[in-house]
Amino acid sequence: MAETGHHTLQPYHALPLTLNPLQCIVMSICGGMKVEYRVLKGRINSVGFQPDERLIPFLELAGFESAALIRTFNLRYDLISALVERWRPETYTFHLPCGECTITLEDIVLQLGLPIDGNAVTDVSLISRPARLCYDLLGRSLSEGKFATLRFSWLKANFEHLPSTGTELEVMQAARAYIMHLIGSVLMTDTHGSDVHLMYLPLLSDLHNTRSYSWGSAVLAILYRKLCRTTDPSVVDIGGCLILLQSWALYRMPFLMEHESRYREVIHDSDIPSND
Asked: Aminotransferase-like plant mobile domain: from which residue to which, for each copy (predicted)?
């Protein structure tokens, strides 16, 4: 009988399992019988362009260098959807036959390199002059009126290409814009997938101080929240840092990599033969 308990899932060879790897994942997802599963969809999984090399020192200063250098890759929504079916909101863990496991702050550091110590990333309750804030920190504004989000299309159009004669101030402004784009499209995505909330921008005003916030904790908390939301069978999309969720699963359960070409068959067919 497989050992149970609440622990961080280690790479497969370290798990005290009696089940064959394929049996473990099949039983984890299907519970030993064939069922029809929804396949959830997300919106964005990359910024869409790499940062100018002049931004790198400022991204490093702010604690976002590793996350900013993540390369785009395809999300496997069958894998993500299967994991959601095993998520239990009352414990914030995945319930598998081999025990309970979950994504931790250790995984945040390992996969994303974000700070996990320091001040909490909290909402700014009121931004009374959003245009002024954007002019001060980005050098330009989306609008002169009231607004609460920045569109990714606007960030890309205004900050993807930095002039060769750009000053240090302009480079810092572009770095803030890239971090905002990264937060909204990769790290803390919602199901709209078209903009990022302005509440994060004040935390980027002093890039020396930005890394004093526990961005990793915020990313993990939002992912937990989105996973809990998707336990409702009527939900058809998912937000949060899906790159983290997928890379965690493939790192902690590396046997999944061996079956990429037939992954859907593996996780949905409870009659798949033993791999012995």
From this structure: 63-256
